[in-house]
């Protein structure tokens, strides 16, 4: 199965596009550091868990127009953030990327 990659130029990253239920359930559990972009059929409340994720991540919720509705740092095993969006971006924590996100209201991909 080919994994589609999405470029987010303003952050200088590529993320694996995840649309299936199993991929959304597994997320970054038991994996190495990589970026994921979860795509939902419609805007909805989406929570994440950090069970068996061994590194901190940045989580960004975006609406249908790709406007950032929430941005949060999630810590291994102890964070369970949620937000509303059609897209959820998970990126391994990087201070520079987190600072860029603070100054953005929208992402293009």
Key terms for this structure?
13% helix, 42% strand, single chain, mainly beta, Jelly Rolls, 6 strands, 109 residues, 2 helices
Q: Would you summarize the structure shown here?
A:
It contains 2 helices and 6 strands.
Tell me about this structure:
- The protein has about 110 residues and is mainly β.
- It has one domain (about 5-100): Jelly Rolls (Sandwich), CATH 2.60.120.
- About 15% of the residues lie in helices and about 40% in strands.
- It has 2 helices and 6 strands, in the order ββαββββα.
- The chain has a 6-stranded mixed beta sheet.
- The chain is globular.
- The relative contact order is 0.25.
- The model has no long low-confidence stretch (mean pLDDT about 95).
| Assigned CATH architecture | Sandwich
Helix coverage percent = 10-25%
Strand line-up in the sheet with most strands: 1-2-3-6-4-5
Number of domains: 1
Mean pLDDT: 95
**Major pleated sheet:** 6 strands, mixed
State the CATH topology.
Jelly Rolls
The counted number of beta strands is 6
Query: What best-fitting shape do the alpha-carbon axes yield?
Result: globular
Secondary-structure class: mainly beta
Helix and strand topology:
Layout: E1 5-8, E2 13-18, H1 21-26, E3 36-47, E4 57-62, E5 68-74, E6 82-92, H2 95-102
Parallel strand pairs: 2-3
Antiparallel strand pairs: 1-2, 3-6, 4-5, 4-6
């Amino acid at each position: 199965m080919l994994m589609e990659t999405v470029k987010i130029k303003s952050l200088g990253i590529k993320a694996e596009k995840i649309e299936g239920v199993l991929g959304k359930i597994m997320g970054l559990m038991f994996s190495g550091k990589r970026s994921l972009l979860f795509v939902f059929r419609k805007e909805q409340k989406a929570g994440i868990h950090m069970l068996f994720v061994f590194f901190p991540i940045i989580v960004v919720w975006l609406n249908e127009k790709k406007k950032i509705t929430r941005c949060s740092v999630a810590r291994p095993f102890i964070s369970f953030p949620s937000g509303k969006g059609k897209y959820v971006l998970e990126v391994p924590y990087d201070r520079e990327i987190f600072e860029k996100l603070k100054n953005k209201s929208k992402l293009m991909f």
